[in-house]
């Protein structure tokens, strides 16, 4: 998976692993009561909502007093109880890509170098070097808050960040569904080499994919198959490389 963007392709570092069958489980919980009249139920509900709101506010204030903490992205004090140490302002600033995007790699089409001289708009890099994948898509650019969230999960081991990134991935997958020719999408996270997995303790790609699966739109059938691919050999870190350098590295390893 290309760092910082939710997309899927393979290269020479991965190979197909033996197929496994994954069980599917489900649970339905319901409750009903006809003890109260409609008016009484409305009053009780209103009172409960007010009480819950008061308790929530008091708990958040107590939490901020007893366990002061700052946002891991901007450093502002956190005033709400959350497993993710990121303020709402920073989360709201992570927005989807706007404007035109490359039909192949999903990057933004900006500047005069990105000429739409084909049936589908392609960026200069895709016209210069044919990628090893059919199509990629991204929620946002690999900078600012999105990059910080990924680093928070990948390098600082803040696992709740996977839920936010999974929600973004789910939105991207839903937009790609028409391209699947009526087949159910299969999520195959890029695996981590055993040395990285031992060092980090988890595969961030799989955590994000699992979160996306849990947040898929109602009625959608998505499948997660992390066992399909396995990493064959360790490779140098691509941190700090430009998009062109990353693509060259993938081409050399193919």
Summarize the model shown.
The chain has helices at residues 38-66, 88-92, 124-128, 144-154, 161-176, 194-200, 204-214, 243-253, and strands at residues 14-16, 186-187, 223-224, 229-231.
H/E element order? EHHHHHEHHEEH
**What is the 3D shape?**
globular
What's the end-to-end separation, in Å? 14 Å
How confident is the prediction overall: mean pLDDT?
75
Number of helices: 8
Structural class determined from secondary elements: mainly alpha
Helix coverage percent: 25-40%
The largest β sheet comes out as: 2 strands, antiparallel
* % residues in beta strands: under 5%
List unreliable stretches of 5+ residues. Answer: 1-12, 20-44
Number of beta-strand segments: 4
Instruction: Kindly report the spatial arrangement of strands forming the biggest sheet.
Output: 1-4
């Amino acid at each position: 998976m290309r760092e910082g963007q939710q997309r899927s392709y393979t290269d020479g570092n991965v190979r197909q692993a033996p197929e496994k069958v994954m069980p599917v489980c489900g649970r339905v919980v319901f409750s009903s009561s006809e003890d109260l009249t409609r008016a009484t139920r409305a009053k009780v509900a209103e009172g409960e909502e007010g009480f819950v709101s008061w308790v929530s506010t008091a708990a958040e204030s107590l939490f901020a007093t007893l366990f002061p903490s700052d946002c891991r992205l901007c450093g502002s004090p956190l005033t709400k109880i959350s497993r993710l140490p990121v303020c709402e302002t920073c989360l709201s600033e992570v927005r989807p890509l706007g404007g035109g995007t490359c039909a192949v790699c999903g990057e933004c089409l900006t500047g005069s170098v990105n000429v739409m001289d084909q049936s589908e708009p392609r960026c200069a890099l895709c016209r210069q070097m044919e990628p090893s994948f059919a199509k990629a898509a991204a929620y946002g650019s690999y900078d600012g808050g999105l990059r910080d969230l990924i680093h928070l999960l990948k390098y600082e081991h803040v696992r709740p960040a996977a839920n936010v990134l999974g929600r973004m991935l789910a939105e991207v997958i839903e937009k790609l569904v028409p391209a699947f020719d009526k087949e159910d999408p299969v999520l195959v996270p890029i695996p981590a080499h055993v040395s990285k997995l031992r060092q980090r303790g988890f595969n961030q790609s799989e955590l994000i994919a699992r979160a996306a699966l849990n947040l898929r739109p109602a009625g959608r059938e998505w499948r997660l198959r992390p066992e399909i691919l396995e990493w064959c050999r360790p490779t140098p870190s691509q941190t700090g490389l430009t998009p062109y350098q990353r693509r060259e590295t993938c081409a050399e390893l193919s």
